[in-house]
């Protein structure tokens, strides 16, 4: 099981100072560490030596005075590291996830809570909409349970909707799950996921590249997504609008040579358009978790028999016939996609319907469901549920299918 190396006070101070240096990009820091070794060695070099390796901007950033609150941040980090289960993983540490080393800009520091061995295990990301439909929540949990039961670590971003369902599904199978978060490791976002984060830290792992105390900022999440993409062998997208943070993860994964899988859905559902777009661009259409396992050759032979560890295998190349749209990270531009589609785009209940009818229509989503499924999702009494279904059918908002199934009508909302 990987363990972090002990750090002297001098080394910890140097790591934190370089990691927090404004304008010192991870790729430049990695080059400096490769040239001069320990971070404290970097800080003792003359400007000319640093500039010769990483450029004048990086040299200025590395040698600049630490920020005014540096002493307080260092003290907070020392206290945080002393708490059970907390670990600071440096770029030079054997516990650093080997897959992240394939990135051009691996984070210099990772703040981790929980089982560090999961950062070295075979893993699959399960991501999707924050405003997920009930069917997507069910699918995310089901896929995660099956993937975890097969021995894969399930990675996601601790967001509402699909992410949370994926983490819970993996934990249900007593499997490993890793949450890559967009805040400091001492914070939880969204606040509603405090209990889930506590459970993940106890049975899985929480990981952040952000300094302690970093609040949730929109710009942090696309950067968080690149770590999710790098940690895994494949990414499963379950519901995504056309402008979605999940698509950023998928595109970054494709650039890194990971497999990208997408679940199809109704052509009338706004939150399936992103998945359909990925499929058109070459992502693998999957309808079951077993298809993901088959594509990744999981379960084809006994665990460990004739198979190299995840850190030593070559990444699989994405089977795409049409290239994904390239992001513009290398040019230093901000990713042009917002984190998530507006909730109003995701679900637009019919105007003028009674509250029970709107709630039932929202619970139905855009996939067929039985009365039993709808009763579980809404907690409506049977008589109210049956009456509301009849009202929606007569109003043209849903259709009754053979076998007791109901589906949202295309002429409805």
UniProtKB/TrEMBL annotation:
Region annotation (Disordered) ranges: 299-346
Coiled-coil blocks: none
Domain Smf/DprA SLOG: 88-296
Domain (DprA winged helix) ranges: 345-404
SUPFAM superfamilies attached to this UniProt entry: MCP/YpsA-like
Superkingdom of the organism of origin: Bacteria
GO biological process: DNA-mediated transformation
Family indicated by similarity: Belongs to the DprA/Smf family.
Protein's UniProt name: DNA-protecting protein DprA
Species of origin: Paraburkholderia acidiphila
């Amino acid at each position: 099981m990987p363990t972090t190396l002990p750090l002297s006070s001098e080394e910890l101070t140097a790591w934190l100072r370089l990691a927090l240096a404004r304008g010192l990009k991870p790729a430049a820091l990695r080059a400096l560490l490769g040239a001069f070794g320990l971070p404290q060695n970097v800080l003792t070099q003359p400007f000319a030596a640093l500039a010769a390796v990483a450029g004048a901007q990086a040299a200025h950033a590395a040698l600049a005075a630490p920020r005014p609150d540096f002493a307080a941040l260092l003290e907070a980090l020392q206290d945080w590291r002393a708490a059970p289960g907390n670990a600071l993983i440096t770029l030079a540490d054997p516990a650093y996830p080997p897959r992240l080393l394939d990135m051009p800009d691996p984070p210099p520091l990772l703040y981790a809570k929980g089982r560090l061995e999961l950062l070295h295990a075979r893993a699959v990301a399960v991501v999707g909409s924050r405003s997920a439909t009930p069917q997507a929540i069910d699918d995310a949990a089901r896929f995660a349970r099956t993937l975890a039961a097969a021995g894969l670590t399930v990675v996601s971003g601790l967001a509402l909707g699909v992410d949370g369902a994926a983490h819970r599904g993996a934990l249900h199978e007593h499997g490993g799950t890793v949450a890559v978060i967009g805040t400091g490791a001492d914070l939880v976002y969204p606040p509603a996921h405090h209990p889930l984060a506590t459970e993940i830290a106890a049975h899985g792992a929480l990981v952040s590249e952000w300094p302690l105390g970093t609040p949730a900022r929109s710009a942090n999440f696309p950067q968080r997504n690149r770590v999710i993409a790098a940690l895994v062998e494949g990414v499963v997208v379950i519901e995504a609008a056309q402008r979605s943070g999940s698509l950023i993860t998928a595109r970054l994964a494709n650039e890194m040579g990971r497999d990208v899988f997408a679940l199809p859905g109704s052509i009338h559902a706004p939150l399936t358009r992103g998945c359909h777009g990925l499929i058109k661009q070459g992502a693998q259409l999957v309808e079951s978790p077993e298809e993901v396992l088959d594509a990744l050759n999981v379960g084809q032979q006994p665990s460990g028999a004739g198979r190299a560890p995840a850190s030593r295998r070559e990444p699989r190349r994405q089977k795409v016939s049409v290239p994904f749209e390239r992001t513009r990270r290398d040019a230093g531009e901000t990713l042009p996609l917002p984190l998530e589609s507006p909730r109003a785009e995701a679900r637009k209940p019919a105007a003028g319907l009674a509250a029970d009818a709107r709630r039932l229509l929202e619970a139905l989503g855009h996939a067929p469901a039985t009365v039993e499924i709808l009763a579980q999702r809404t907690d409506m009494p049977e008589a109210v549920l049956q009456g509301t279904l009849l009202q929606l059918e007569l109003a043209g908002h849903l259709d009754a299918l053979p076998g007791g199934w109901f589906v949202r009508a295309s002429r409805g909302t």
